[in-house]
Design goal:
Blueprint lengths: L1 H9 L24 H7 L7 E12 L2 E12 L4 E8 L4 E8 L3 E6 L1 H4 L4 H14 L8 E4 L3 E8 L2 E8 L4 E7 L4 E12 L2 E11 L4 E12 L2
Antiparallel strand pairs: 1-2, 1-12, 2-3, 3-4, 4-5, 6-7, 7-8, 8-9, 9-10, 10-11, 11-12
Helix pairs in contact: 1-4
């Protein structure tokens, strides 16, 4: 991830602490799903192949880097392929991502020169879409209008917050090696599934914020 910051700096950004996205969860309902039901309702744990066109904003301090992204998300194989462009239509990179590996298919010369760039981008995509995921062995904590599945980690914990509609709203990890949060908001119905229209990753250890907005959502037959 630190190499990703170097890439951002190369593109003209200045380090600071971006603001954390505030969430509003429904308050007029009671969350009482079982662990099995929460896992079954989580869209990121269902088999399927999604084609997502996204607008993205990468922030590091007062400077911002807008991008457009085309993501093919295969939730059965647990892999993603991301094609990212800048606001002028220039293809910045083409990256294939699995749970444990990544392969940079193409990148502009400035990014190719930066060691670890692909690893940093891939890690952000994993945290948002691929891993970690809730498990049936996680501890269940009821919070009235929300529920949390969580597990202890060295130096902290990993937690997943679901609202009263059993929709994943937050992944939060604090440990000896990581401190980050992903917020999933504005769920909308696409076909037979509901996906968030806005996703925000905050990496507090590296002062990084990545915001994604779904512009087009298609499920492959």
């Amino acid at each position: 991830m630190i190499r990703l910051l170097a890439a951002i700096l190369l593109l003209g950004l200045v380090a600071c602490v971006p603001a954390t996205t505030q969430q509003q969860l429904p308050t007029n309902c009671q969350a009482d799903a079982t662990q099995v039901e929460l896992l079954a309702e989580n869209w990121l744990q269902q088999p399927g192949i999604w084609r997502l066109r996204q607008s993205a904003l990468l922030e590091l301090g007062p400077k911002k880097l807008p991008m457009e992204g085309f993501l093919r998300l295969d939730l059965q194989k647990r892999e993603a392929r991301l094609l990212a462009m800048n606001d002028m239509g220039l293809v910045l990179f083409d990256l294939l991502i699995s749970e444990n590996e990544q392969q940079l298919k193409h990148a502009i010369p400035q990014l190719q020169q930066i060691k670890g760039f692909a690893q940093g981008v891939a890690q952000s995509m994993r945290q948002i879409f691929l891993t970690p995921t809730p498990k049936s062995t996680d501890l269940l904590q009821n919070r009235g209008n929300s529920q949390r599945l969580w597990r202890p980690l060295p130096g902290g914990s990993l937690g997943f917050v679901f609202d009263c509609q059993s929709e994943l709203r937050e992944t939060r990890q604090v440990s000896d090696s990581d401190d980050w949060r992903v917020a999933y908001d504005l769920y909308q119905t696409f076909g037979s599934a509901r996906l968030p229209e806005r996703i925000v990753l905050n990496d507090y250890r590296h002062n990084l914020k990545l915001s994604l907005w779904m512009r087009e959502v298609k499920l492959e037959p």
